[in-house]
Design goal:
Layout (H helix, E strand, L loop, with lengths): L1 H27 L2 H18 L9 E6 L1 H6 L8 H13 L4 E7 L8 H13 L3 E9 L4 E4 L12 E3 L2 E3 L5 E4 L2 E4 L2 E4 L1 H10 L7 E3 L3 E4 L2 E4 L6 E2 L11 E3 H5 L28 H4 L6 E6 L7 E2 L5 E3 L5 E3 L2 E2 H13 L5 E2 L2 H21 L2 H26 L1 E2 L3 H33 L5 H9 L9 E12 L2 H6 L3 H21 L2 E7 L2 E6 L8 H26 L6 E16 L4 E6 L1 H16 L3 E4 H7 L3 E10 L7 E9 L6 H18 L3 H14 L4 H15 L9 E3 L4
Parallel strand pairs: 1-14, 1-15, 2-3, 2-15, 3-5, 20-21, 25-27, 28-30
Antiparallel strand pairs: 3-4, 6-7, 7-13, 8-9, 10-11, 11-12, 16-19, 17-18, 22-24, 22-25, 23-24, 25-26, 27-29, 28-29
Helix pairs in contact: 1-10, 1-12, 2-11, 4-5, 6-9, 10-11, 10-12, 11-12, 12-13, 15-16, 19-20, 20-21
């Protein structure tokens, strides 16, 4: 039975675990769960904080409000402005210049401006322009730069950013495909220019990674790279467009100061322009819009920022800085990766195993706390590996697996417990006190299966002369009489925290101190036996008045170590006791017949109760099948019972008689027992010992006599 239950339990544990995994991943396909996972990625960026940029290789030239107000013309500017800025940036030593503005059409207002821009692009081979692919459900269209601006040595790349389900931008397409042709992204083309060996530079789009020159950029999801953002908007060093444009070769009108290439005057405290500072030397310079009106702003994981006063606000990132973050991710090989498939499997296994252990071995409250702690530890681990190893571990699915496993195991444990309680109540309700049943239901582990050693007290009770009584009654009358008797006796046992082990016809076997242990089980057994005799005396009066047989019962009580547990086969078993002390208790019940007593206890029980009850020694007996004798006693009454002085006088004489008998002082023994019989002529133990003493007085038992009476029957 235990093995079957164990197998069933293991099957359920496996089923719950698999079910939790399947349910978590089925729910994980929903857009809500996917969005939640993305928010957990943002959380980790926020906990990590910005990455410090020291001497950033990437700088930004901002098309901002200041520039729009300072230039002679308002946006959209003539392309000659960009031509001049490219010249100035090259004069300042820029390594590569990326222009994040789509020039896919000619400037209808200024053909000369387009011509100037095209000439500058041919003059400088370090400029990268932006193109784009617009996709819809039915078609897609590519928008490269205006043909006049494309040079022989490819100088443009695709602006390849895509929003996630929540509208945030976290990924970057390093390359993209259009009509089966592979196109580099804006950032990839900048890297080609920056590499210094453009002719041998290659782009590949493999299943697991992008190849950009000598670099392999790991894919994260949806054929894209995860951008490792260095911080919120305006993290990268930047300069306003007008500041770079304002040079001696360009007339800024009212705002003309030639700040870019002003040599400065140290004596007058005038700093030199950026052309002479070296701040742009060997830098990758990205030109892009930061003006709100141009709508080139994107929400990113660093959307929420705090100012110096601690006030939080939402600041979207300009697209040009999004390119800067993608560029820095690749330049510094600061890639974000996912956990490998095998590690994900191990995480799932760990989640279900740990959740099972928590729910299996901890109480409900502590298992709830333990599960929450497990989730917190797991999330802390994901933050740690993100910050220290740039690894993005899934959070939502493992947490869902833990949650579903917890609910499944807890529900199963609850149902299992309820079933156990139902089984226990069904098994013990009629034989065990209600408070013991409740204790077992609250703590079923106290009912160990298979057996355990325990010291208990056992009672055996049997109706005297039941066979002859049963012959005088009809079956119905016998059943009614027996049920009335057994009900009364059973209630007394239960009232004293005993349990009914079994009924065998008119016989009762009961135990005290199991399944729930308590210290005074010997006293409880003795009180129950005395009350059984008292109740039986009351019932005899009733039966006599009804003309029914008057039952008398004998009781044997023993205390000792026995085996307690479920005994039997896997399919049929009883919760019972076994051992020599059990057998001895049964023998004591039968031994009452020899001494004419109603309650006999062993020396083992006597050792526990001698100060609480009136007793008298009956004999040293050797039960059948045993060599070692034991002393047995008659249980008379509790010490707090008011006995007649006459009876106490008889008990005193009886004890003297026993002492004289065991020391072979036959005359004194005879005198003592005759004194007892003068007081109580029907006292059977006194009759028995008077008879023995007379026999031994005239027939000495010999030197080997040890005072032991050997029983020849059970």
């Amino acid at each position: 039975m235990a093995q079957k239950q164990k197998k069933e339990s293991l099957v359920m544990v496996f089923a719950i675990s698999i079910g939790a995994i399947i349910l978590a991943y089925l729910i994980g396909f929903s857009s809500t769960i996917h969005t939640l996972e993305l928010k957990f990625i943002d959380m980790r960026f926020g906990l990590r904080g910005p990455i410090e940029l020291e001497d950033s290789p990437v700088v930004i030239v901002k098309i901002d409000d200041q520039s729009d107000e300072s230039t002679p013309e308002r946006w959209p500017w003539p392309r000659a402005y960009f031509a001049q800025v490219i010249k100035n940036l090259n004069a300042a030593g820029a390594a590569v210049i990326g222009v994040d503005v789509i020039f896919d059409q000619p400037d209808v207002d200024s053909t000369a401006s387009d011509q100037e821009f095209a000439e500058v692009l041919r003059q400088y081979d370090n400029v990268v322009l932006a193109g784009k692919i617009l996709r819809s459900q039915n078609y897609s269209t590519i928008y490269p730069p205006y043909q006049k601006f494309i040079t022989d040595n490819n100088n443009w790349g695709l602006v390849a950013v895509e929003a996630d389900l929540d509208g945030f931008y976290r990924r970057y397409l390093v390359t993209d495909t259009y009509n089966d042709s592979l196109y580099p992204s804006f950032v990839a083309e900048i890297l080609r220019k920056y590499s210094g060996h453009q002719d041998n530079f290659k782009f590949e789009n493999n299943p697991d990674n992008f190849v950009v020159g000598d670099l392999r950029v790991p894919k994260f999801t949806n054929n894209s790279m995860m951008i490792n953002y260095y911080g919120p908007a305006f993290t990268f060093p930047s300069y306003s467009f007008d500041y770079i444009l304002d040079s001696q070769d360009f007339d800024m009108g009212d705002f003309d100061s030639d700040l870019f290439d002003d040599p400065g005057d140290p004596e007058l405290g005038i700093p030199p322009g950026i052309k002479y500072t070296g701040q742009l030397k060997d830098k990758i310079v990205l030109i892009g819009a930061t003006m709100f009106e141009l709508h080139d702003l994107f929400p990113t994981p660093f959307l929420e920022v705090k100012d110096s006063l601690g006030n939080q606000s939402s600041v979207e990132m300009p697209g040009v800085e999004l390119h800067a973050n993608a560029l820095m991710t690749i330049l510094q090989k600061n890639f974000l990766t996912q956990t490998p498939f095998l590690l994900n499997i191990l995480i799932i296994l760990a989640a279900v195993i740990l959740t099972f252990i928590i729910t299996r071995f901890l109480p409900t409250l502590w298992s709830s706390i333990g599960t929450i702690f497990l989730v917190a530890v797991y999330i802390a681990i994901t933050v740690f590996v993100f910050v220290n190893n740039n690894v993005i571990m899934e959070i939502v699915n493992p947490v869902l697996i833990i949650a579903f496993s917890y609910v499944g195991h807890t529900l199963y444990h609850y149902l299992q417990t309820q079933q156990e309680k139902k089984m226990l109540r069904g098994a013990f309700a009629h034989y065990v006190p209600e408070k013991v049943v409740q204790e077992l239901m609250n703590n079923p582990e106290k009912l160990q299966l298979g057996g355990e050693e325990r010291v208990i007290s056992v009672i055996f009770s049997d109706v005297a002369g039941f066979t002859s009584i049963s012959e005088k009654l009809t079956p119905r009358e016998l059943v009614l009489l027996l049920n009335e008797y057994l009900t009364a006796m059973t209630n007394i046992v239960l009232d004293h925290n005993g349990i009914i082990d079994k009924y065998e016809g008119d016989a009762i076997m009961a135990e005290f101190g199991m399944p729930v242990a308590f210290d005074d089980h010997p006293q409880a057994a003795c009180r129950a036996a005395l009350q059984m005799q008292t109740r039986l005396e009351e019932m005899r009066k009733k039966w006599k008045a009804e003309g029914r047989p008057e039952l008398e019962a004998r009781v044997g009580i023993n205390t000792g170590e026995v085996i307690v547990g479920n005994m039997g086969s896997e399919s049929v078993f009883d919760y019972t006791v076994m051992g020599d002390h059990v057998n001895l208790g049964s023998r004591l019940e039968g031994a009452n017949k020899v001494y004419g007593t109603k309650i006999m206890i062993s020396e083992f029980t006597y050792a526990f109760v001698k100060n609480d009850f009136y007793t008298r020694p009956l004999d040293l007996i050797r039960v059948k099948g045993k060599n070692k004798p034991i002393e047995v006693f008659e249980l008379i009454a509790e010490r707090n019972t008011q006995l007649e002085s006459k009876y106490l006088e008889m008990l005193s004489a009886y004890h003297k008689g026993i002492e004289a008998y065991r020391t072979r002082n036959w005359k004194e023994a005879i005198d003592s027992f005759e004194f007892c019989l003068n007081l109580y002529p029907e006292d059977y133990p006194s009759k028995l010992y008077r008879k023995r003493s007379i026999e031994f007085k005239f027939n000495d038992p010999g030197e080997n006599w040890d005072g032991v009476f050997t029983m020849t029957t059970k």
